[in-house]
Structures are given as C-alpha cells and as structure tokens.
Amino acid sequence: VPLEAEVSQPLPMEQLFSAPEDQYHLPKLGETPSGEPPDPKKCSPREFLEFYIFPVLLPGLAALLYEAEKEKCFEEKRTKFIPSDFLTEWLYNKNPKRKDESFTELFSIPFVKDWLKDRPRPPIPLSLLLSEEEASILIQSFWRGYRVRCDSEIQELRQWQKKLREERHITEVVKKFWTKQEAK
After folding, report:
1. Which string of DSSP letters, residue by residue, matches 142-169?
2. 53-82: per-residue pLDDT in tens?
3. Helix (H, G, I), strand (E, B), or coil: what is residue 1?
4. In the chain, at which end, N or C, are there fewer CB atoms within 10 A of the end residue's CB?
C-alpha cells in the first residue's frame, strides 16, 4: 500500500480511545499499580513508567494545573508563574526520601543553587510582580510628580538650585568632603 493511501485514511478513533475509563484516573502520591513492582533495571519502559514515574509525576502535574489556575495563567497572557519551578519544588518536597524533612523553597534546593550559580536568571519584570492596583498607584504618583515639576514656580526653583550648584561648585565641594572622610 503506498504511503499516501495510508496517510489519507482517517484514524479509527474508537481504537485510540478504547482503553477502559478506570485506566485514566490520577494516582495518589506514592500509589503504585497493583502487583509486585518489577526490577527497575530489567523491566520494560512501560512498566518502569507505571510503577516508578507516574505515581509521583501525575499528582505533581495535577498540583501544577491547580496552581496555574490559582495564578490565573489560563486567563492572562503573561504571568509570573513558572511551571517548571513549581514542579521542581513540588517534586523535591514530595520525594519519599525527604518524608520527615521540612518544606524547602526552590532557591534553597542544593542542585538549584548550584545550577543558578553558573546560570543566573534575569530578574522578573516589574510589570509581572505588581498587582494592577500597585501599578496604577505607581503610574499615578509618577504623573503627579511630572505635573508638579512642570509648574512654573517649581521650574524657577529648579533653575535657581542649578545656578547655585554651578556658582558654588557644589560637586567639587562634595568630592573634597568625601576625600577627607575617606582619609580619616
């Protein structure tokens, strides 16, 4: 059969989704499929995933989706929420080997510290950190300051200060002051 004939045939959807519905439930953290766990070094990839990866990863992904919804990631175009950071922190803290240890922040996790030492991140833009109310207050205060500085009396005062600084050589006086202070 030529390749074009195979590609143009519609996919039998009932075959793709014919697995029983109980197979699609999310396991609870640490819940493994029934039966004896296989040897991780000798089992098939499917068994490894079902017994060792999915019981930990799927609840983490569910928590990630819940947190993303809480952070309004599905409503806004840009958010400060970084899914990989959340999942890293969640998986680290839910690790069964760390059961009795206290919660650890992402940037306090040892391997994260080492990673960021060599590859520092750029800071999160202020527009993502501020709420709408905080941003509006900042914009309004800047605008009020601008409008005040445009006032003719304020302009006159600023010109007088500039002239005074130039006449009295204020910058040189300040430099001399600090050199004396540093010499002490």
Report:
1. HHHHHHHHHSHHHHHHHHHHHHHHHHTT
2. 888 889 999 999 999 999 888 988 888 889
3. coil
4. C
